[in-house]
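Before we proceed, please read the two lines closing this message. Let me know whether the structure tokens fit the sequence:

…
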Amino acid sequence: MNSSAFYVLLDLDGVIINTEDQYSEYWDCMARRYLPHPEGFAARIKGQTTEMILSHYPQELLPQLRKEYEYFETHMDYSYIRGAEEFLQHMHCCQVPMCVVTGSSKPKLNEVLLSHPEFHELFRFIICGDDIKLGKPDPFCYLLAAERFQTSPEKCVVVEDSVNGLRAGLNAQMHVVGLTTTHPREVVGPLCHMMVPDLSCCNEANLKNLISC
């Protein structure tokens, strides 16, 4: 039963787990190695699916890049970002339905679930890059989540940190909470309805109030 009458749709990297710096370093390194114009590449692709990111590279390099990327993701640190674990437990205790909406692949998601088996209990479902036909900033992934919850967009709160993700939430006509864990306030602020430094500033009461506005 959803006693709060709203639903929370969370991005994964930079929102729940502290991986954005690791990804930025990796993709900037790959861009310098293989792309003619690598400047700012990691920032531009944040929020995109793995396949969307790889589409920027020459076709003949893709088998090698996929192997390198798979190795990288199996050796990442998937620690919680500040405030995330407490927020998730709080919302779970308040019986607020939650899901993860991420552009990450299933193999990467399996690694995350090995580190965080509690996700199986905390989230009703997880949408990953393999489920997404059109990546962020397209609203497809968030509209798919609303459909799986059997609810309407206006009852959904999207929690995001990337520009592409924030725009996807807005394009889905949902209530958007923007975290400044990845981008500064001046970037995040115009793309959300509520801006916070991290999930320690969110709770069931202020998200319910956001839905009511």
Summary: The first helix runs from residue 20 to 34.
